[in-house]
Amino acid sequence: MPQAPRTELNPAYSDESAVAVEWAQAEALLVEAELFWISTVRPDGRPHVTPLPAVWRDGKLYFCTGAQERKALNLAANPQLVLTTGTNTWNKGFDVVVEGAAVRVTDDARLRTLAAAWECKYGSFWHFDVNDGCFEHGAGKALVFEVAPRTAFGFGKGEPFSQTRWTFGD
């Protein structure tokens, strides 16, 4: 079980009545979220952002992508990324931003567990077979990555506005 993160409210970006949000609330949002936005950096330094589905499991976020997709190519050069989810509104909801490094998952037994989690969350359209350290779907293969949060931010929108920071590890 991952260690609980250090939790801090940033008073500069929070209403006076705001309190730090517990990590369990953010984690519940990560479990339920259907869509995430992944931000990576191209080899020439330009940003790249795209939506994708992801699964939260055992304290980590998991996503998949084709080996020749821009995000996979970016991660091969620089594994640092940001995954974001929340609501597309200003005055209500809660957004979570997770910073970390992508690590490729290649163990077939672990991938089978993750494939089952994908299908459970997203339905049979997202059924994956596992072969040779990859997800397979029809004629395509996908690399699977895990991201252990290094730092995460939560943005409470509406009354009260808040910004919580969670720091993992040292």
Automatic annotation (TrEMBL):
<dbReference type="Pfam" id="PF01243">
    <property type="entry name" value="PNPOx_N"/>
</dbReference>
<dbReference type="GO" id="GO:0070967">
    <property type="term" value="F:coenzyme F420 binding"/>
</dbReference>
<dbReference type="GO" id="GO:0005829">
    <property type="term" value="C:cytosol"/>
</dbReference>
<protein>
    <submittedName>
        <fullName>Pyridoxamine 5'-phosphate oxidase family protein</fullName>
    </submittedName>
</protein>
<dbReference type="GO" id="GO:0016627">
    <property type="term" value="F:oxidoreductase activity, acting on the CH-CH group of donors"/>
</dbReference>
<dbReference type="InterPro" id="IPR052019">
    <property type="entry name" value="F420H2_bilvrd_red/Heme_oxyg"/>
</dbReference>
<dbReference type="InterPro" id="IPR011576">
    <property type="entry name" value="Pyridox_Oxase_N"/>
</dbReference>
<dbReference type="InterPro" id="IPR012349">
    <property type="entry name" value="Split_barrel_FMN-bd"/>
</dbReference>
<keyword id="KW-0560">Oxidoreductase</keyword>
<feature type="domain" description="Pyridoxamine 5'-phosphate oxidase N-terminal">
    <location>
        <begin position="25"/>
        <end position="148"/>
    </location>
</feature>
